[in-house]
Design a protein that fits this description.
six-stranded antiparallel sheet; 27% strand; four-stranded antiparallel sheet; alpha+beta; 6 helices
Length: 318
């Protein structure tokens, strides 16, 4: 048994210690790790170039209760946005709540009174996602497995498990540790299953990832193709407005939403919220990864600048 950072190797399976997620060690995983590592090296090279030029950071930010590793999206975004990650919260201009947990009974207190991104996003359980979705969109994602008739998806409350399975309702004895949701037919051309991965940065949608999955991998995070497109390509203005409202109710300042469009009625469903988003997806080319991070960094820069301006204005009034 080997332990490295937040992960533990048991046989041919890597276990994420915080979430309990099991990741089989495969040739594809090794290839993905190489791709991610190469991208991190590239971002570090850009960071070093900026340092050598003596360019001052836009802002300093501290993460609590832990800092993100380089394979989380916020890390390269900070580098590209010229936001320096610091260890000392007192040195920081801003804070960022970062923790791979889907549920806390109350938000963690920020290190200071300075603005803390995602501080209110401490409960992203599937039942909360479904309840908030109904409030915003007006129709149900969740189903009652004892009274609902037809196929449904059974999955864990926890985030990142990718353990969804199709069950036939009604069920006499549904599992108490599972949630039950509408089975969305998110197929395209009858073959690929499409996940409209929607980044959220400060109440904006910079772009969307179009994730293509085969039938056997529809509930997994294994994409054979990923494209980057403008939000208008996949989502109507009204849908984008509701998605942003949903993110605000979840108090998600920076993260990603999994959005599925039902082929049968054309409606969209938000099925997952991720506040510790990894990325960009490994299936993207190096060029598209850079495009994605630059797009996120541009939006994050505007968000950081707006919070710094608001903080300065408040200080001057005092």
């Amino acid at each position: 048994m080997a332990v490295f950072g937040n992960y533990e190797l048991q046989g041919n399976v890597i276990i994420a210690k915080e979430t309990g997620t099991h990741i089989p060690v495969t040739k594809k995983l090794v290839k993905d790790v190489v791709r991610v590592t190469s991208f991190v090296w590239f971002v570090n090279a850009l960071k070093a170039t900026r340092f050598m030029r003596g360019q001052e950071p836009r802002a300093k930010i501290s993460f609590f209760p832990k800092k993100p590793n380089s394979f989380y999206a916020i890390w390269p975004v900070c580098q590209m946005a010229n936001v320096k990650i610091v260890d000392d919260p007192q040195e920081a201009d801003l804070h960022f709540y970062f923790e791979d947990r889907e549920f806390l009974t109350a938000p963690r207190p920020a290190p200071s009174t300075k603005h803390a991104f995602n501080a209110g996003c401490y409960d992203i359980r599937k039942s909360v996602v479904a309840r908030t979705f109904k409030e915003v969109f007006g129709y149900n994602l969740a189903v009652d497995p004892k009274t609902y008739t037809g196929p449904a998806v059974e999955k864990s409350e926890a985030n990142g498990k990718h353990d969804g399975r199709i069950v036939q309702c009604p069920l006499e004895d549904p599992r108490e540790d599972r949630v039950y949701q509408v089975l969305v037919d998110n197929t395209f051309d009858g073959k690929d299953y499409i996940d409209i991965r929607t980044p959220i940065v400060g109440g904006t949608i910079p772009f969307v990832y179009i994730k293509h999955r085969y039938h056997d991998e529809r509930f997994l995070n294994d994409n054979h193709q990923v494209d980057i497109v403008e939000p208008d390509t996949m989502l109507s203005p009204e849908e984008q407005k509701n998605i942003i409202r949903f993110a605000k109710l979840m108090q998600l300042d920076f993260g990603g939403l999994d959005v599925l469009r039902n082929r049968t009625d054309g409606k969209i469903y938000i099925v997952d919220v991720n506040k510790t988003d990894m990325g960009p997806p490994t299936a993207l080319s190096g060029k598209d990864k850079l495009i994605a991070i630059r797009g996120l960094a541009e939006a994050f820069s505007k968000l950081v600048d707006s919070k710094l301006t608001a903080s300065k204005s408040l200080t001057e009034k005092v």
